[in-house]
Amino acid sequence: MTTLGIGGPAQFYAEATSEDEIEAAVRWAGGRAMPLFVLGGGSNLLVADGGFDGLVIRVGLKGVAQAETDEGLFHVSAGEDWDGFVQRAVEGGFAGVECLAGIPGTVGGTPVQNVGAYGQEVAETIERVRVLDLETLEFREMSREECGFSYRSSLFNTVGRGRYLVTRVDFRLCPGGRAKVAYGDLQKEFGGVDEPDLATVASTVRRIRRSKGMLLVEGDADCRSAGSFFKNPLVNQEQLEGISNRLGLRPPVYPAGDGMVKLPAAWLIERAGFSKGFRLGRVGISSRHTLALVNLGGATAVEMLAMRDLIVERVEALGVHLEMEPVLLGF
Questions:
Q1: Sequence-distant (≥ 6) Cβ neighbours of residue 15 within 8 angstroms
Q2: Is 203 a catalytic residue?
């Protein structure tokens, strides 16, 4: 049930297709003082070889509803396929998520990581997130501000980690809006086009993701990954100068606000001596993108973390610390 295909079994497992079933499963685990984990699409998850000694709930809530009096507002259940929702939005002429096409997983996972790619983040369009508070066992709706979004981060994976279970996300999209073409890869693609339409941008993003092994394609060995394994690190200007002096050249950077810049983790990994296709036993770096670590067949979680540690150690020597992006379960 994970795209990496690594890890042992869950002691207990339940699929919940309604909020009542979710609440019942949570109460069942709570009555036994049992650890609980909420599973979405399994595309950003590394499970321990020994599995998980607790209850895994797979959220299967379905449904996409457009507000009757507000055409740009969509209520999307947490178990909906994310890319399916993007396609629906694009086909309907609603802008705001077109650059997030091709990202695997379910809608419920997108606010947790504040999923982003090619110049867009879900935080830009999220209006509310409906959750079950696992401490009070009450359902509540949280505003965008309450979610505490920042780069690849939110309340749900920081100070509120493990407290909230997402059941629905409300997105405010722009009917008839223009596609966002701010990211370098997209600007290169559309350099001579004044205003590409939403569908063209979404399909182009999927094509670029596929060329980098970041699109789930049946039978593609590079797809046995969790996508980007490392976050792009944020540094201040002083740190950037130190890194530039150490390397003898200035890294490519992207503005990140508050005096910070974003460094491309893939670029750093390559400067640390790693190349596409690098192998360490049964774990490799994707043949198409140095940011993805791949299960070459039969890899264990221990082997995956050994590759992670090797990369982190060598990049650390350049003066930058890399953080892994996938969630660890059962360690």
A1: 57, 58, 60
A2: no
